[in-house]
């Protein structure tokens, strides 16, 4: 994979924190930024997927599903109470 160089600006306090963490993790500053961006992208994609799933299931369950669930609950209750 081809690497691309970039420059970013940040305040001195954050820069110092980045340097300390890179030292603590024994990685380069560049590697730390890559790790952070990869994690951020993964979290963003997971949130987007969760949003899509929630939209797909919004308003669920349907009437048919509710009937099936009610029958299952009744059947389970009968089993637990010994009335099968």
Question: Would you kindly provide a written description of the structure presented here, covering whatever features stand out?
Answer:
The chain has 84 residues and is mainly α. It has one domain (12-81). Helices cover 73% and strands 0% of the residues. The chain has 3 helices and no strands. The chain has helices at residues 12-25, 29-56, 63-81. The longest helix is centred in the middle third of the chain and has 28 residues, at 29-56. It is elongated and about 70 Å long. The mean pLDDT is 90.
Structural topology:
Blueprint: H1 12-25, H2 29-56, H3 63-81
Quick description:
The protein has helices spanning 12-25, 29-56, 63-81. By secondary structure, the protein is mainly α.
Major sheet description:
none
Please estimate the helix content: over 70%
Radius of gyration: 26 Å
Portion of residues in beta strands equals: under 5%
What is the domain total for the residues?
1
Q: Using DSSP, what is the number of strands?
A: 0
Number of helices: 3
What coarse outline follows from CA principal-axis ratios?
Answer: elongated
SS class: mainly alpha
Report the average pLDDT across residues.
90
Note the gap between the termini.
63 Å
Q: Descriptors for this entry?
A:
73% helix; 84 residues; mainly alpha
